[in-house]
Each structure stands twice: as structure tokens, then as C-alpha cells.
Amino acid sequence: ISTVFDHSLLILGTPGAGKTTVLLELASDLLVRATEDPADPIPVVFNLSSWAIARQPLEIWLADELNKRYPVSKKIAKYWVEQNALLLLLDGLDEVEPQYQNECIDAINKFHQERKVDMVVCSRIADYEAQQSRLQLDRAILLKSLTLSQIDEYLDKFGAEYSALRKALTTDEALQELAETPMLLNIM
């Protein structure tokens, strides 16, 4: 994912497709880069569902979230936001209450346009497509369902321990369909 990310990115997918997992993988890569180069912005994951509670301007919400969710003082949080010291990893646009999703998209666009800050936003594709507003980000990716060969490759890592699951997947089409979602395959 870090090879796709440039300055801004929208990650779309179906439920369980791995959007949050991909976002966290990117966060890990970006954290390594930020520790190697102090000039790089600090990647921070925020869950957009809490934005809808007060529907504040994004800069106020970000500083408040840094203070509430991370051990960052209000003064430092506000300073980091003002100085564009953060790389925003915004998860769960689809978790914002539906009646506020367009407003949230508009708040993100306004902040992004004014600040030119690097950011990534994740959303379920159906929820995003249902909105009138669109995010003004550089790129978008759609996480697709796993193929049978990808599922096989994943199960190969575990050896014979999962032979019963492999056998079931070869004969049960409903189970195959469920396994196409990374989250459900992992649960299996």
C-alpha cells in the first residue's frame, strides 16, 4: 500500500475487505519513515465516527481527538494540527451517521484544500457511492475480493493443519464466497 500512497488516498471496499488492515499497514510503513526522517509528518489514525457527535471543523476535532485518544496535551495537539505535522489516517467514513456523511466529506475536503495535508480516508464503497459529495483526493483504490488462488496461498502458510478447511472450500460454494473476504477467511 505504501507504493500506491502519494499525498492523499481513498481506500474503498466491501465490509470485511481489509480496509482498516491496509490502513494500519500503511500507518506502520509511514511510522518507520517518520522515525527515519523527522521532517516527515507523524501518521495518526483517527476514527471518523466520533466526528459526527459535534460536527466541528476538522482542525478542532483532530486536536480534541489527539487529546482524548492519545497522550497528547491540548496545546501540543493544537500546535501539531496548525503546523500540518500530522499525516491523517481517517478510518470509517461509512461509520459516520448517514445523514452527516456528506457534511463530513465536505469538512475533509475543506481541510485538505486549505492545508494541503497528506491524508488517507477509508470507507465502504456502497456507503461512499450513496453520497452526493466526493472526496477531493489524489488517488482511490478499491480492495477486491480474494481469488481462490489467493485463498489457497494464504492457507498454504498453515500447512496440513487446515486441510479440513481446504477440503470444505473445494466443495462448498457458499463457503468459498465467504472466504473471498479477508476478515471471514481469517475467522475461518
Structural summary, described in words:
The protein is of the alpha/beta class. It has ten helices and five strands; from the N terminus they run βαβαααβαβαβαααα. Helix 5 links the parallel strand 3 and strand 4. It starts with 7 loop residues before the first strand and ends with a helix. The mean pLDDT is 90.
Task: Give the gist of this structure.
The chain has 10 helices and 5 strands; from the N terminus they run E-H-E-H-H-H-E-H-E-H-E-H-H-H-H. With 188 residues, the chain is α/β, with parallel strands linked by helices. The chain is globular and about 55 Å long.
Largest sheet: 5 strands, parallel
Report the end-to-end length measured between terminal Cα atoms. 25 Å
Low-confidence stretches: none
What radius of gyration results from the CA coordinates? 19 Å
> What is the number of helices?
10
**Mean pLDDT score:** 90
- State the total count of DSSP E strands: 5
Q: What global shape is seen?
A: globular
* Spatial ordering of strands, largest sheet: 2-3-4-1-5
H and E order: EHEHHHEHEHEHHHH
Helix/strand class: alpha/beta
Helix proportion range: 40-55%
Strand coverage percent: 15-25%
